[in-house]
Amino acid sequence: MMFIRGVGMTKFGIQDVPSGQMIYESALEALGDCGISMNEIDAIVVSNNDIISNGERQRHSASMLSSLFQKKIPIVAVTSGCSGGGTALWTAIRLQKSGNYNNILVIGFEKMVSNLSSKVTDEMLMGAERLYEQSEGMNFPAANALVAQQYMSIYDATSDDLALVAYKNHQNGYLNPKARFYKKKISIDEIKKSPVVASPLRLFDCSIPANGAAALILSKEKSDIEVIGSAEETDYLAPFEREDMISWDASKKAAAEAYKQAGIYPDDIDVAELHDAFTSVELISYEDLGFCKKGEAKELIRKGITNLNGKLPVNTSGGLKAKGHPISATGISQIYELVKQMRNEAGERQVSNIKYAMAQNIGGAGSNVTVHILKKC
Amino acid sequence: MYKSNIVMAWRKTNRGNYIIGSKCKECHALFFPSRTRCTKCESNKLEDYIFNGNGKIFAHSTVFYPPAGLEKQVPYTVAIIKLDEGPKMTAQVVEFDDLKVGMKVQSCVRELYSDGKSGIIHYGIKFRPSD
């Protein structure tokens, strides 16, 4: 199977530095983490969203990395909206299975917070249905609000349940030096009183954009972290096209496949990084990934089962909510967090006794999902 | 189809029903948006199908922070409508007092947005209560 040898990431925040600098910083940390040099990297998979409003406008991220690292090796770019990082890892794993590469550097990066938020919003909307949804006034919060509205009315989940998800992730992010909300206290009251963006979702139900890069080194060589499950599934772009909006097929299928490869069950997962682009997505994901039955996600959050000291801590990094969501970097940063947790290097937010860890990365409103399962060797 | 030219669709449908999708001539499956190939039976014999414009609210949300271009309409309500014939679509809902899931609605042509004072007015489908 495959092993993760090293991980690295920049702080997710508002630092206004060129993407190249963030890529370099995260890659150097990953190389240093496993004590190898750039010369030992024989392929790179990179993910980025070609954000045109950040002043860089570089569509050829593969060649950009070649210049940056002064490396003439196979470099492949994959773009998949918010699931770009997970999809880059998924792709790298298949590339490695071909047998031609020993160490593959996988990088996700995004520079978002250097422009007007209306422009950033429009950039993000390029990852959703434009012709039949956005012209009607839909944006990402609204698309997820429609899903949340239906979910909450059918399963009696409340705005308070959503607030608990935000509160939990902000408490975790408070402890994570790489999180955008590090050491920033957010009270449950602030969350509940924040303005409505698209009912029933409030500002604090939404994740926050950030600049950042994250990197990992995937290797054939045995390390302490093995990738034992890797799956990717895709669903229709717009929620209205789907039979069932409140259970995401791509998530369910990717999870089922990853569990099958790993030979384990949802109960075996000790810690998870889930794609909380909106607090409602974290709740729905508890169900889609098999952590509870359909409609019971609210019990998990109410009972504190997914809290840092709960039975299944979720988003110990702070998640997209409090760590920040630099689109293509997010999926790799999830792996970064899991590896730190599995190695007992997570500082104040460390959870104990981890054998199996899961990362779920979503693009669009459930349009594209990757699930990876890691095992501590 | 109507998307690219709502005015044409409005004329084509005799100025009444203007949601145009497709119907498979082989298996009679209905589609919105239009398709040129049936994804149920793989037939490529499809024809325009004009939906009657009646449906029910499937899910709804009121938007306070809009995408660019719709700032003046805030707050407005978007919904997923389940058309009586089966397919679903996303559209705004207007002229209602209290919106509920399952409420009956019918389509109407409304301005979506305009390109400034002297620019083009973009029309589209919205829904309003039908009872």
Task: Write up what this structure looks like.
With 377 residues, chain A is of the alpha/beta class. Chain A is 36% helix and 18% strand. In chain A, the strands form 2 sheets. A 9-stranded mixed sheet of chain A has the order 3-2-4-7-1-8-11-10-9, sandwiched between helices. In chain A, strands 5-6 form a two-stranded antiparallel ribbon. The longest helix of chain A is centred in the first third of the chain and has 16 residues, at 19-34. Chain A is globular, with a radius of gyration of 19 Å. The mean pLDDT of chain A is 94. By secondary structure, chain B is mainly beta. Chain B folds into 2 domains: 1-51, no CATH class; 53-131, OB fold (Dihydrolipoamide Acetyltransferase, E2P), CATH 2.40.50. In chain B, 5% of the residues lie in helices and 44% in strands. Chain B has 1 helix and 8 strands, in the order H-E-E-E-E-E-E-E-E. Chain B has one helix at 6-12; strands at 19-24, 30-31, 46-51, 54-63, 76-83, 88-93, 104-114, 121-129. Chain B starts with 5 loop residues before the first helix and ends with a strand. The mean pLDDT of chain B is 87. The chains are: A alpha/beta (377), B mainly beta (131). The interface between A and B is medium-sized, with 33 and 28 residues.
- Mean pLDDT across the residues of chain A is 94
Approximate shape of chain A = globular
* CATH homologous superfamily label of the domain at 2-116 and 210-219 in chain A: Thiolase/Chalcone synthase
Q: Say how many strands of chain A there are.
A: 11
Strands in their spatial order, largest beta sheet of chain A: 3-2-4-7-1-8-11-10-9
Give the count of structural domains of chain B.
2
Largest sheet entry of chain B:
5 strands, mixed, barrel
Q: What's the oligomerization state?
A: heterodimer
Shape of chain B: globular
Helix- and strand-based class of chain A? alpha/beta
Mean pLDDT of chain B: 87
Distance between the termini of chain A: 12 Å
Biggest interface goes to: A-B, 33 and 28 residues
